[in-house]
Amino acid sequence: MRTILNVIWLILSGFWLFLGYLLAGVLLCVTIIGIPFGIAAFRIGVYALWPFGYTTVERRDSGTASFVGNVLWLVLAGWWLAIAHIVTGLALCVTIIGIPFGIANFKLIPVSLLPLGREIVPTDQPFATR
After folding, report:
1. 10: how many CB neighbours lie within 10 A of its CB?
2. Which of 45, 63, 82, 103 is 20 to 30 A (C-alpha) from 93?
3. Model's pTM, two decimal places?
4. How far from chain centre, in Å, is Cα 82?
């Protein structure tokens, strides 16, 4: 079932969201300071490409650096990516068949706003990394 949902997701919005994260990651990797943010954008981009079957969990070992990084991320790229998820989610919720995909878009908003200090894990093992 996850495979079918991921394929439909890929066609409807996943590919375009992945391209948005890819663009954000490339732009952030232009400077040495932005490389950690670019890597986070690439990681979330892969998650946005195939979201069904995965979830995000907070990392307990993240600290002040993640907080400062998340504030910078929010200013540099987070707002734009969150807006893309909101617009895509609302567009998908217009039809009954698209509602689960719209909800999946809304699920990606928190991780697009504050990605540092979070880890993407399979849904059957959300607590295995702790």
Report:
1. 16
2. 45
3. 0.80
4. 9
Secondary structure of the chain in the HEC alphabet?
Answer: CHHHHHHHHHHHHHHHHHHHHHHHHHHHCCCCCCHHHHHHHHHHHHHHHCCCCEEEEECCCCCHHHHHHHHHHHHHHHHHHHHHHHHHHHHHCCCCCCHHHHHHHHHCHHHHHCCCCEEEEECCCCCCCC
Instruction: In whole angstroms, give the CA distance from residue 15 to residue 41.
Output: 14
Q: Hunting for tokens 């999946």 — which residue is that?
A: 104
Q: Which two tokens stand for residue 76?
A: 């540099």
Instruction: Note the pLDDT tens digit of each residue in 3-60.
Output: 888 898 898 888 988 998 899 899 989 989 889 888 988 999 999 888 888 888 888 7
Helix axes 2-9, 99-107, angle to 10 degrees: 80
User: Quick one: tokens of 42?
Assistant: 């690439």
